[in-house]
Amino acid sequence: MTTRVILTYKDYEALPADGRRYELHDGELSVTAAPAPRHQRTLRNLFRAIDAHVEARGLGEMLLSPIDLILSDTTVVQPDLVYLRLDQASAVTARGIEAPPALVVEVLSPGTTSIDRGVKLQLYARHAIPHYWIVDADRERVEAYELAGASYRLAGVLEGPAPAALPPFVDLTLDPGGTWHVTGRRIE
After folding, report:
1. Residue 85 covered by a domain
2. How many structural domains comprise the chain?
3. pLDDT by residue (tens digit) across 93-141?
4. 105 and 81 in contact (C-beta within 8 Å)?
5. Is 147 left (phi over 0), alpha (psi -120 to 50) or beta?
6. What is the CATH number of the domain that holds 82?
């Protein structure tokens, strides 16, 4: 019989700074490679659109990965984007973000799809993060999930040519062209 080793934040801190993305999912180490350029370009475009909206309206703060979101001593993740409302500013500490934010965004990569749609979806719901977006750059689709009790329900989708507003930003209309394109050409 194998005994499962549960890692903690202290173990996480001791991991090497070697360019890999380390996370703890309920004490289990998860390691993924650095994201591809398409992932990063999509992330940049989303960040620019949302951050401009958040800044212009004084709604709080957007943060980009890598940043530690410390949900417990055994759960430390690095979402691609994090939105904190003004009243959540104290969650940001020298270690990272130490409380559930208003929104986390994950841009899918080939090596993270099952984690983002499975393990992280469950972790984020369990830690009461009200909004979770899953961004699929290959399908040019953003799925906005909203916490309903102990799990998420699909609350909105950005897909196709029509702009859409997604919770929690009901007054921000995201333009698909601006999300999936850069300088007039489709992101590859």
Report:
1. yes
2. 1
3. 999 999 999 999 999 998 899 999 999 999 999 999 999 999 999 999 9
4. yes
5. beta
6. 3.90.1570.10
